[in-house]
Design brief:
It contains six helices and three strands; from the N terminus they run E-H-H-H-E-E-H-H-H. By secondary structure, the protein is mainly α.
């Protein structure tokens, strides 16, 4: 569903709803819903707060999405094994969040520079 080299940029600050379905979250992260269910089993400490209704439908709030984004960063971007990712998240919570924030900031700067480059090309 997602090209491996392309970073996923999920801007949690632009979210308007309180809860998102698993389908909506899968689309945000460009993954299959089955991967989200799998990560829920593999990272129970991080994703224990995901709400389910009586039918078992999952609903993610902003905190859940922040945790998912961190898991995504560690597993997909840093290419850690699941076991390594669990240990890393358990033992290095602050470092993992700082790394994720740094990467997000760099991606924002990169996007800005690419837009600036494109606008300069158009004006010349």
């Amino acid at each position: 569903m997602r090209e491996e080299s392309a970073p996923v940029e999920v801007d949690l600050n632009t979210l308007k709803k309180v809860y998102y379905t698993i389908t909506e979250v899968a689309e945000m992260f460009q993954v299959n819903a089955s991967l989200l269910r799998f990560w829920e089993k593999e990272f129970p400490a991080q994703l224990a707060g995901v709400k389910k209704n009586k039918k078992g439908d999952r609903y993610y709030n902003k905190q859940d999405l922040e945790k998912l984004k961190l898991i995504f960063h560690v597993v997909r971007d840093k290419k850690m094994t699941l076991e390594g990712a669990r240990d890393y998240l358990k033992n290095n919570k602050k470092k993992a969040k700082d790394d994720k924030t740094l990467i997000e900031n760099l991606q924002t700067v990169r996007t800005f520079l690419m837009e600036l480059k494109n606008s300069l090309k158009q004006t010349s």
